[in-house]
Amino acid sequence: ISGTMKGISEAILKPNIQHFTKCDPDYGQRIAAKLGIKL
User: Alpha-carbon torsion 4, 29, 13, 6, what sign?
Assistant: First the structure.
């Protein structure tokens, strides 16, 4: 999923990553790390 999210603005990425993190904290953290987003 992180590959398809590259190039999307951080303003859009952060809320989506927060949803992933609510469902599975480890998964959300891994996606954020791959995209270089600090939560």
Answer: negative
Q: Residue 20 and residue 16: Cα distance in Å, rounded?
A: 7
pLDDT tens per residue across all 39 residues of the chain: 899 999 999 999 999 999 999 999 999 999 999 999 998
The whole model's pTM is what? Answer: 0.84
The sign of the torsion formed by the CA atoms of 14, 37, 2, 24 equals negative
Domain ranges of the chain: 2-35
What burial class does residue 31 get, using C-beta atoms within 10 Å of its C-beta: 0-12 exposed, 13-18 middle, 19+ buried?
buried
